[in-house]
From TrEMBL, chains A, B:
InterPro entries: Lactate/malate_DH_C (IPR022383), Lactate/malate_DH_N (IPR001236), Lactate_DH/Glyco_Ohase_4_C (IPR015955), Malate_DH_AS (IPR001252), Malate_DH_NADP-dep_pln (IPR011273), Malate_DH_type2 (IPR010945), NAD(P)-bd_dom_sf (IPR036291). Transmembrane segments: none annotated. Homodimer. It is found in: Plastid, Chloroplast. It comes from Flemingia macrophylla. This is Malate dehydrogenase [NADP], chloroplastic.
Length: 436, 436
């Protein structure tokens, strides 16, 4: 058991925005869009796939260029949604920030968002891509592919490495970016290195994002990253922060369907309790198949108790063996599911899992951590916790274990949440197979 | 200039189905779904992520298992679309075969199809994934990720390496798979190696696919691969075969938008003429911006004549430099665009580009080749060529060049189209940058 102490002041030694801004200035210069782009902060960094002197005056009536945010390529160009029959009735543009935007999960997710699959066919979107110093060229490649896709709903794309710039006015922040675990690195080390990123991003959200921004943390360890993020964003409701456990829920549904011999659309009411780690609890007590309790349909209770959870958790590892890559496509589908669960009403009688702030939960789970629990939404971006769930000793015992782990993780990042000196007494390696 | 002769009989020396089947038998055995799967041909190869003895009797009323095709994992399980309110009104399931299914383009495309983004929210789909001996494990990984995504519309997934099995009853065949060009390989060599694959796949489509299957060839050299494919499928209308030039069209629209300083939704009527190679002709004479001829809006005609085409063609190469990978995401978007252009009515006054069989074309282009031309569709899967296009000497001259190239490619694959002995007198390297 590793015990490590971190100094509360060390959180600023990495990834501070002014430092990234300095790095940005040492990069080879990019061509800039000089015509509609207004630099809104000193950290602004925009680039363009056409030089200003190649661009003619717009042939069609355009919006006031001063209202245009920083931009990439064709997305620097002005447009007027009110001028066309088919776009006049569209909703107001929303800003969606994505970190780790040059990675494979984002490479699936961004194109789903841009196509209208996530937010609907009348919701224009602006994508704000956050990458790292190393990935800035790749981010430009992503932006170029978005240009070449001609998505009608995708109206603005900007790229950058400074969260204080990229998160400006974000209404959604999908935080995928995280450092992978290096050789020999313990979970405490990973918590610290990624925790610093998420502390910085929480501060940036607090400073510049929409006051009602919804945040979904995907980068691991996602529960505690989400906790760090929300603690560094005191002006944003803690309820707005989510840690992604939806892929675990989806995998659990698939395994229950396979075991019961039914198609997966018959499986409902599956909760993932707790941490996105090997202590997580896929709940077969409350889950239903075709409306019946799982334990009535799957009579092999030994399988439920001894194999089911392992099958769910080993899925990522098996996939890496088969496919040679981690599950970018299905992870991005589960992010879409998580977003859509918040913006569409939850079907009657069902619920979805999300890692949310535990304050005020009705289950007796410790407060002050980000814990995956069953949620319902009216489709307004908000959610409420489901009250009518049952517990037995077996479920309680497992929930207590994942709760203990999350409390230990919390102690381990106290220096990043403003709660004093960190003390790391984490149990063994609980990273899920196939994840870094 | 390379002159190579191929023996007409050499087409069967690679990739013959019986050979693949033999290879299949030498593979480590997979677990098989014994319960609903019926082996319909001797080449059937199915695998399952749950062992039969782990599966209980379905708890819900199921379809007759004998009607179930070969399957993967959870997709082996039965379902009844008539039993539920929300699925009762759905259309009849369609079979969509995808070759190169373990590759990156397919990894984007399959999830788009499964989500309903391509064929609509009431169209259930069966995905039939064709891979190679080498990629069979990766195919299982793709199928696992599709399982974990719980797409309501995705009802069946099967994987295999024998096109005679995988193409069974296919209503769409999206042919992405192709061998990359090896070091020092000339275009004639690439035409031969990939032509043999496409000859085999044409024969398989002819033998087992739906009589009205729509085929979109993406694997390069896609025009001549499509020609080989259709010549080997005499019982399927030649009109049903397409070579993908939609990414070129999309890139051309984006570059015209950038140059004109307008958003890309203002650009219409863009034709890519001819081959998907550097002889292709992005047509700025007929293209329109906000309804006006491009040449009236972009007054820099020197740019149109001397830089525009190169900008479109170099896009893939620039992307590889930036991003380190080829344009899988935007290619898959353009395949979606190509499909949707055939199943939704073309907007009034506009058209789309597709490489189609040139017999009976109204432009005076040589018959018997697959040539990209402007098309319109009523949304029934079929298309007609657009008549009201104009030509000038400049456009005619460039079209003649790409036509000559396609006729040379045709002579070079005569051994694969049943037209005698191949003679390869291809001009220099005309592969597009960033493509293999």
């Amino acid at each position: 058991m590793a015990v490590t102490q971190f100094n509360p002041t060390c959180q600023k030694t990495h990834f501070h925005s002014s430092q990234l801004s300095f790095l940005s200035r040492t990069l080879p210069r990019q061509r800039h869009c000089s015509f509609p782009a207004i630099r809104r902060t000193q950290h602004a960094r925009i680039s363009c796939s056409v030089a200003p002197n190649e661009v003619q005056v717009p042939a069609v009536k355009a919006q006031d260029p001063k209202s245009k945010p920083d931009c990439y390529g064709v997305f620097c160009l002005t447009y007027d949604l009110r001028a066309e029959e088919e776009t006049r009735s569209w909703k107001k543009l929303i800003n969606i920030a994505v970190s780790g935007a040059a990675g494979m999960i984002a490479n699936h997710l961004l194109f789903k968002i841009a196509s209208g699959e996530v937010f609907g066919p009348d919701q224009p979107v602006a994508l704000k891509l956050l990458g790292s110093q190393r990935s800035i060229q790749a981010l430009e490649g992503v932006a170029m592919e978005l240009e070449d896709s001609l998505f009608p709903l995708l109206r603005e794309v900007s790229i950058g490495i400074d969260p204080y710039e990229v998160f400006q006015d974000a209404e959604w922040a999908l935080l995928i970016g995280a450092k992978p675990r290096g050789p020999g690195m313990e979970r405490a080390g990973l918590l610290d290195i990624n925790g610093q990123i998420y502390a910085e991003q929480g501060k940036a959200l607090n400073a510049v994002a929409s006051r009602n921004v919804k945040v979904i943390v995907v980068g691991n360890p996602c529960n505690t990253n989400a906790l760090i993020c929300l603690k560094n964003a005191p002006n944003i409701p803690a309820k707005n922060f989510h840690a992604l456990t939806r892929l675990d829920e989806n995998r659990a549904k698939c395994q229950l369907a396979l075991k019961a011999g039914v198609f997966y659309d018959k499986v409902s009411n599956v909760t993932i309790w707790g941490n996105h780690s090997t202590t997580q609890v896929p709940d077969f007590l409350n889950a239903r198949i075709d409306g019946f309790p799982v334990k009535e349909v799957v009579r092999d209770h030994k399988w439920l108790e001894e194999e089911f959870t392992e099958k769910v958790q080993k899925r990522g590892g098996v996939l890496i063996q088969k496919w040679g890559r981690s599950s970018a496509a299905s992870t991005s589908v589960s992010i879409v599911d998580a977003i859509r669960s918040l913006i569409t009403p939850t079907p009657e009688g069902d619920w979805f899992s999300s890692g949310v702030y535990s304050d005020g939960n009705p289950y007796g789970i410790a407060e002050g951590i980000v814990f995956s629990m069953p949620c319902r939404s009216k489709g307004d971006g908000d959610y409420e916790l489901v009250k009518d769930v049952i517990f037995d000793d077996y479920l309680r015992k497992r929930i207590a274990k994942t709760e203990a782990e999350l409390l230990a993780e919390k102690r381990c990042v106290a220096h990043l949440t403003g709660e004093g000196i960190a003390v790391c007494d984490l149990p063994g390696d609980t990273m899920l197979p196939g994840e870094m």
